[in-house]
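Record format v2
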Amino acid sequence: MEVLDRQEALVSNYEVLMVLQEEDQRHKKIKPKSHVKYPENVSTLKFEALQYLNGTACSTQSAAQIAALKSGLAGYDLTKAEVLQIINLRPKKPVELFLIIEECEERFGDAEIEEIMRVILTALPRDDDDDDDEEGGEEEGDEAQGEGEMDVDQDHS
Amino acid sequence: MFVLAVLRDTLKIVPSEFTKPREEALKDEINSKYANRVLHDIGLCMVVHDLLEIDEGYVQHSEGWIWVKVKFRLIIFRPFKDEVLVGRIRSASPEGIQVSMGFFDDIVISADQMPQGSEFNGTEGVWVWRYEGSEMFMDLDEQVRFQVLDSTFLDVNPPRPKIGDVDSVPASHPPPYSLVCTIAGDGLGLLTWW
């Protein structure tokens, strides 16, 4: 074995989920025909990782939503890692955003934080958003603003 | 949380796999070799992402299988420093708590990385955070948000039974890859707190 690049790219949870689901489908198809047992380490990892990822925000995401979020956040000076974490964790409240964004208070004002939250809530909608909304301001997010200007850049592979 | 690593390896395709398309056979072989294993200084291997280059392959004298040189990208679980992750509390002790993400269990939050004012409740066997007069219990299996401080790799040998004692169970060995994390800070800790 030879390691050529330890870290070529960062991948989002969504992309990992897609690969795992594809593997899962493929195995379900060939399993009955094949007499070769599927290795235990692969099935254990696949099962546990699918279970974990299906419980996170990425289970309801789509490539188009992520592209929309990326273009929505393009105007803010966020690092790649910060955008990736926004996609993976899908913050619901500003307190989570402060955690993800380093030195958030110095880099962004209150108004900008609110705008970023709005971009997240419109680009990555979730069913459970309304369940425990204590922080105001989320309701206006439903206006589906900016739908037209979302250009598609799906270079996140 | 996940990264892609580029690796090259020479893999064996056994005759029973000849019926599969070559790429699928290779992916299966890579997965069975790497999945759920820790590579030192790289991270926990998940599954293969894609194949980049496949050599012709060759059959060695007196063997019935094909050796193929492949360059591929593997999905690796390797959170970066300061990354925020979500897991479940697996166990608690006076030394701290251990968190599991399902496929990865070696996440340690030591006692000094608990929120200020927390202490271990010996009778309940859980940690409690006292904040402004209220007691918040960190029950087992609760979802917890934590931040990665450091990751450690340990080059461990597989556990071996003692020499001369065939029945002895190998002692538990330290995890090859573990994450040192914190839940002290705004937004960290149980998801229900925020």
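The first helix of chain A runs from residue 13 to 30.
The radius of gyration of chain A is 19 Å.
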